[in-house]
Amino acid sequence: MTKKRFQIQGMHCVGCAMTIDNALEDLAGVRVATTQYARQIVDIDYDEQQVTDEKIIAAIEGAGYRASALSAERN
Predict the structure, then answer these.
(1) Which residues pair with 42 in a beta bridge?
(2) Residue 2 — φ and ψ, nearest 5°?
(3) What is the CA radius of gyration of the chain?
(4) CATH fold of 2-71, please?
(5) Could you tell me which residues come within 8 angstroms of residue 59 by beta carbon, excluding any fewer than 6 positions away?
(6) Can you give the residue ranges of every domain in the chain?
(7) 72 DSSP assignment
(8) What pLDDT shows up at residue 75?
(9) pTM of this prediction?
């Protein structure tokens, strides 16, 4: 499993965070997604054999937000 943090742009409320979590958790290979509205980030635990950063970003953008990877691994 890989753990990665992404910066999110365009969130306006906690409902936005829930929308992102749901979009990501629908992706095969994503174990858990935890979006923090106040910090404008999402932490994702995923299987890098099943899902790529590009697919994660596409899912976030498909939900109506912008995203970029912050680091290779988070602690």
Answers:
(1) 6, 35
(2) -110, 145
(3) 11
(4) Alpha-Beta Plaits (3.30.70)
(5) 23, 24, 26, 27
(6) 2-71
(7) S
(8) 45
(9) 0.88
Please state the separation of Cα 23 from the chain's center in Å.
8
Q: Could you tell me if 24 and 42 are in contact, meaning their C-beta atoms sit under 8 angstroms apart? A: yes
Low-confidence residues of the chain: pLDDT under 70: 71-75
DSSP characters for 9-71? E---SHHHHHHHHHHHHTSTTEEEEEEETTTTEEEEEE-TTT--HHHHHHHHHHTT-EEEEEE
Within 13 Å of residue 66, how many CA atoms lie on the same side as its CB? 2
pLDDT of residue 71: 64
pLDDT in tens, 35-54: 999 999 999 999 999 999 99
